[in-house]
Amino acid sequence: MPILRGSASLTRFNVALPPTLDFGQAEFREIVPGSEVRESIGFLPFEPTADYQVASARWAFRIRIDRLQPDATAVRERLAGLLRDEEEQTGTQRISARRRKELKHLAEEELLRDARPSSKIVEGVISDGVLQLGTTANSVIGKCLLLLRKIGVAADFKTPWDDLGDGEAESDVLEALGPGQSIWGARFLADLISDREVMLEPVDGYAKLQGRERRITMAGKIVGDVVAYVEDGAELVTAKLTTAERSFRLDGLAFRLSGLSLDPARGMHWSEALDQRLEQIDAVWELLDRKYAEHRRGRSRKGRVLNSADGGEPRREARRERDTDGEDEAESAADAPDNVVSIRGG
What we know:
The protein is α+β, with helices and mostly antiparallel strands. The chain has helices spanning 72-90, 97-114, 138-150, 160-163, 183-191, 223-231, 270-309, 328-331, and strands spanning 8-16, 39-44, 53-55, 58-67, 118-127, 130-133, 154-157, 199-200, 205-210, 215-220, 235-242, 247-251, 256-260, 340-344. Strands 1, 2, 3, 4, 5, 6, 7, 8, 9, 10, 11, 12, 13 and 14 form a 14-stranded mixed sheet that branches. A hairpin with a 2-residue loop joins strand 3 and strand 4 (58-67). The protein is globular and about 80 Å long.
């Protein structure tokens, strides 16, 4: 989950900082073999001897998450052996559920004694009151925010609808249930279909939509299909977008980036490479924020026109879900889960 190398996945937050940031209060500690600790999480600098503060009002850090968890297949195999031993010792093949649970716990403990923890690294940067974490996974984000809270950093998801004070939008087919999510993000994505600066990837595309009765996933040359579904009332939830310089996926509901392609930084000190990549990342965020502001102004103008046309009452346009039964798209998705349509464009 890097920021410094490779393609980037990013979530932004507005943060309130304490007078002094001391990452040493929650530095990472390895799990001691034989201890009862199953998970350890803490801060590390980008390099062993590096400072956390890399510039004025900018801090760069890594969050390491180590977890001890036995392999599920190994647990099943060891449990089967313990059950056989139990049957031989007791002379019965009817082992109670309680005893099975005890033997499973014993199998896990035996395997954990020799297990090595799995490690996950999440890179983060705080700059000018904004935190960027190199992940879009809610479970990982939650752990990182709790750790930051331990050193006095309070974080709220940064989205343009919150920054601009937009109220919540309503949808007949989609709910915004996650932290920071809003239907406005899906409407913004749909608006980008006709944009000239940020557009749907025309060849190697990807999109997720929510219709009235089903989810739709598409890949390939899909622009025409996406347009048709949106016109029929589906909400565009996620899409692969492209600009003159970058390509990335945007989770519209949560306003998070993934698969963001960045220019390689070769032969640089890590701090110089970080500056270069953050400049590219910030340019993408600034473009999307500007586009959302434009979308918002257009939305406001459209609302005024509709109110005027209907004598002051806002007009609700009827929506209908596109019936795909019997069409090629539905036939190609025979193996998809219930209520899910998968389409691969040619």
